[in-house]
Amino acid sequence: MQAASDDPARFTGVRVLGVDEHVWHHQDRRRRGPRELTGIVDLTRGEDHPTARLLDLVPGRSGTVHENWLEERGEDFPSGIQIATLDPFQGYKNAIDDQLQDTTSVLDAFHIVKLAGDAPGEVRRRVQQDTLGHRGRKGDPLYQIRLLLRASRDRLTKRQQERLREAFTADEAHISVKAAYRCAQQVREVFHQDTPTQGQRPAARLIQRLPTCPIPEIARLGRTLRKWKDAFLAYFDTDGASNAPHGSHQRNHRAGQTHRQRLPQPHQLPTPNAPHRRRPRRLHPHSTLKSL
């Protein structure tokens, strides 16, 4: 691992560069070091690059971190980068614009779908509070479909589709959740068209239509897509450049973590069997003792 990290040849031939944040741990920084890292991955495909390659993990999550890393690569490295994929973080975008002026920035499809998938859940929680005055509880119609709202509708079973319909029609106020769910599904579907052109057209329509939606959460999603319009639509011009292989590095890291077996706490220990005590026999109040 250290030998690969010290080898400068790994930066040769990189044409598609991916950048994304990575949360290394959730503990005290004083004990485990930096919590957030910036991951840089080579997403170039070819005979020399059959799979994505992790290039570096840099402590910190900011545009300055990414910009400094690009500056350290020298002049030859930026000139070879044609496409740069990133999550919707303005700091990374500023670093790419400053150091990779001739590079096409592409907003990662995974993060777009995640933003869209979060919107119905936010609407559900707001409507839940407005109609019932409390957080979701077992038995509440909207709470029962909280996981279904994040799933792709083409993968739902008939029973799951029926559960959605029942929840949407349980109260008139639930129409907002239904509309938010449909908008999120439309965003998801632009990435599942047969050709990039077929996906680019509905994506452009969503950028125009969603910011004017009367549902605040969907309007905010639309403004985000409009702000990142060029990077969003560039996905369809670059044959679907995405950080998806980058995410696999993060999943592999988490999957490789081993969890130390902990000793059971006192309340988790089995209760020892108490010695059997024979209950004293009570005499009936009307019974009489026989005299010896």
Number of DSSP helices? 13
As a whole number of angstroms, the C-alpha radius of gyration is: 28 Å
Give me the strand/helix succession: HEHEEHHEHEHHHHHHHH
The largest sheet, given as strand count, sense and whether it forms a barrel, is: 5 strands, mixed
**Mean pLDDT value:** 82
Helix content: 40-55%
Low-confidence stretches: 246-276, 288-292
Strand order of the largest sheet: 3-2-1-4-5
Q: Strand percentage, roughly?
A: 5-15%
Separation, N- and C-terminal Cα atoms? 94 Å
**What is the strand tally?**
5
Structural class: alpha/beta
Described by the principal axes of the CA atoms, the overall outline is globular
Provide the domain count: 2
Task: Please tell me about this protein's structure.
The protein has a 5-stranded mixed sheet with strand order 3-2-1-4-5, sandwiched between helices. Residues 246-276 and 288-292 have low confidence and may be disordered. It has 13 helices and 5 strands. 47% of the residues lie in helices and 10% in strands. It starts with a helix and ends in a 36-residue tail after the last helix.
Feature tags:
2 domains; disordered C terminus; 47% helix; single chain; five-stranded mixed β-sheet; 13 helices; alpha/beta; 292 residues
Topology:
Blueprint: H1 2-6, E1 16-23, H2 29-32, E2 36-42, E3 53-59, H3 63-72, H4 76-80, E4 83-86, H5 90-99, E5 104-107, H6 109-132, H7 141-144, H8 158-168, H9 175-189, H10 196-209, H11 216-227, H12 229-237, H13 244-256
Parallel strand pairs: 1-4, 4-5
Antiparallel strand pairs: 1-2, 2-3
Helix pairs in contact: 3-5, 6-9, 6-11, 10-11, 10-12
